[in-house]
Write a structure and sequence with these properties.
Elements lengths: L2 H20 L2 H21 L6 E2 L3 H4 L10 E2 L1 H16 L18 H18 L5 H13 L1
Antiparallel strand pairs: 1-2
Amino acid sequence: MNTEELTARTYEHLGERILETFRDKAVARDIVTLAGMAEIYCADHHDEAQRAPFRSKATEAGVYPARKIPRLCPDCAMHVRYGEVRRALCTRDPRPSCKTCANHCYAPEEAAWQRTCMSYAGPRAMLRGHAVDAIRHLIQTRLS
């Protein structure tokens, strides 16, 4: 089963529970940060003509402020949807950075994509309107 099918099945199976989780401020903040980093990566690696305003269950639930809805290509959008679901299902409290978590819940190919995306976008986030998100994530990573 590919990532897109897995994400769709998870939404279908846990629909209302995931929507409730999206309303949590910490979850919403993490999801917006993830999508912002993916947008930076996508803007520099994929054709502008393919990029469109991102749509997912999280955007429907109002997680993204109107000015922070990213423009992503279909491939990057699929990865962000997967990340939204994984974050919504995370039961760790306090939640560590995925990089430092003892239980890696991402599929190996998704984890590899996230590492590539974050290592590229992280240093550039400060200059592209995600400074607060990047600093918050860096502090969280160092503390966990």
